[in-house]
Specification:
Length: 223
């Protein structure tokens, strides 16, 4: 997708060492000759077991099908946090404190998605520079998009920073709207900068139901 520039590949490099303790079937307890590298059926009870490593651990453990699914969910959450940590700019201490604060208010353990959004909101309150806010609101819009939520308002706020900058420049006369591939009517739209600020037609200068809107503003100097 076009916004992959703003997303990093967060792949976990596995430095896995074989278990130093004898392994056994998690169902019947029979001792295994070696750690399996894939789904394996126990020769004793005919049930399948797996070798999985949890986040933060080095050794694989032999687990049941249900335990495997739980570990895979742990990895999903681990990768989710790892991905958004540099995007928001928080550390493990921030994450823990925010989670405790939210839990104490509601009495319910918040999801990682809810914690990340709360951290975004906290950073938004502390950010003053317009360009920093522009990028922050862009990331907030991206987060909402990937969560399957409406992201347009935050992307609109991000775009507005450009319009405000154009208004402050006496040499800029017109604003040009560049439609993205998803928007219908792929013709550049030109309008006076004051009108552009009043209408704020981005995102979605055209009509498309799904996808990330990559429409953008540019400007033209007064001649």
């Amino acid at each position: 997708m076009a916004f992959q520039f703003f997303k990093k590949a967060f792949s976990e490099k596995s430095h896995i060492i074989e278990a130093t303790k004898p392994a056994s079937c998690p169902y019947c307890g029979i001792e295994l000759e070696k750690i399996p590298i894939r789904k394996t059926k126990c020769k004793s009870c005919n049930k399948y077991y797996y070798a999985k490593r949890r986040p933060g651990e080095e050794e694989k453990r032999i687990v049941t099908d249900q335990e495997k699914e739980a570990i895979e969910r742990e990895w999903d959450e681990h990768q989710f946090i790892k991905k958004w940590k540099p995007m928001v700019g928080f550390n493990d201490e921030n994450l823990s404190k925010t989670a405790k604060m939210m839990g104490s208010k509601t009495g319910v353990k918040p999801s990682n998605s809810e914690i990340i959004w709360e951290l975004f909101l906290e950073k938004e309150k502390k950010t003053r520079d317009s360009q920093d806010l522009k990028m922050l609101h862009f990331k907030m819009a991206l987060f909402l998009f990937e969560e399957g939520k409406n992201y347009e308002e935050y992307l609109r706020i991000s775009h507005k920073v450009d319009l405000d900058r154009f208004m402050d420049d006496d040499y800029i006369n017109d604003v040009i709207v560049h439609p993205c591939e998803l928007c219908k009517g792929k013709i550049k739209i030109r309008m006076p900068k004051k009108e552009a600020l009043e209408k704020q037609i981005l995102p979605r200068c055209g009509v498309h139901e799904e996808g990330w809107c990559m429409c953008m503003y540019s400007w033209e100097h007064r001649r």
